[in-house]
Prior knowledge:
Blueprint: H1 2-37, H2 54-57, H3 62-95, H4 101-109, H5 116-127, H6 132-139, H7 153-177, H8 181-189, H9 194-205, H10 207-221, H11 225-231, H12 239-248, H13 253-282
GO biological process, one term: transmembrane transport
Organism: Psittacicella hinzii
Family: Belongs to the binding-protein-dependent transport system permease family. CysTW subfamily.
Amino acid sequence: MKSLINLLSIKNFTVFFILFWLGLFILIPGILVVLVSFFSSSPNEFYEAVFSLESYSKLTDPLYLKVFQNSLYLALCTTLVTFIIGYLYALAVVNCRKKWHALLLILVILPFWTNSLVRIYGIKNLLGANGFINQFLKSIGLIDKPLQILYTDTAVIIGMVSILLPYMILPIYSSLQKIDSRLIEAAKDLGAGPFKRFTKVTFPLSFSGVIAGITLVFLPSMGLFYISDLLGGPKSLLIGSVIRQEFLFTRNWPLGAALSIGMIAILMFTMWLVNKFKIGRVE
């Protein structure tokens, strides 16, 4: 009885600590951001505590709409490329001998041991005019002058894929590993070819991992401003870059907060669509 009481007390303390942590570092800052978004901007202060919808009215400005559109485009391209590479890699790991699984998964997790900013600087050197790619293409005679890869949308997508790829591979691998091999063998015995076995058995049964991977990649890819700052040009702005500029440089906190709320609204709508699609698949 005493051990049960101790267990319950530990459980209650853990729940309380988690709720306290979430409230202190997520709920309260979120409420403050919402409040600031309804305040007026001030030339001398971060904001003026006077109710105003001026910041939200600026969200319909063509400039900010263009940034939102570009952010969605880059996020969707990143998610698509990451899904194709991640699914093929996870499928290859599952189908290879089990003794190689641990090594191949370590290769996926290995980049987490290095700071992502350091990796982006490495990619910047790789894609530069004097980087390895251009030097290699020159050495084999495919190009005469360096290709313009750096400071383009392509460079931003490459950078985001390199950072977010593990978040796609791991959930897909987990879902593929749980598939009963007898189901695939049964489909094979019934005359289904490799493509039909994949489309009718493997992919539908791994769909939950696909949804999890898409969510983990798409949501952060709209806010990785340091990647677009280092690898992209002026036309490759992410909404995260604009929010950082409004808070740190322009010092227009109400507009930065309103842009943050707009990005959160887009992400929540995307999650709602993904969840609805997932439910539809399960049914």
